[in-house]
Design brief:
The chain has 76 residues and is an all-beta fold. The protein is built from no helices and 9 strands. It has one domain. 3% of the residues are buried. The structure holds zinc ion.
Length: 76
Amino acid sequence: MEQFTCVKCNGPMVKGFVADHGNKSAIFKTLWFDGDAEQASIWGIQGDNISVDRSKQRVIRGIRCKQCGYLELYAV
Ligand SMILES: [Zn+2]
């Protein structure tokens, strides 16, 4: 198992990911998309949601320092 060391304080780091809760019953992995967000519309009506190109999505993963909380995030 790989060991990661914090670049800020030399503390031990653990792997993890950023979660998003879209509503009260579900938790999702947070995704990264290159470029700007485009407002989605249905029949010309715009809501709060955005339109995305799923072929460009990447899951955000990272490592967190157990000692100081420093995060390193990667979109892979
Ligand atoms: Zn640290």
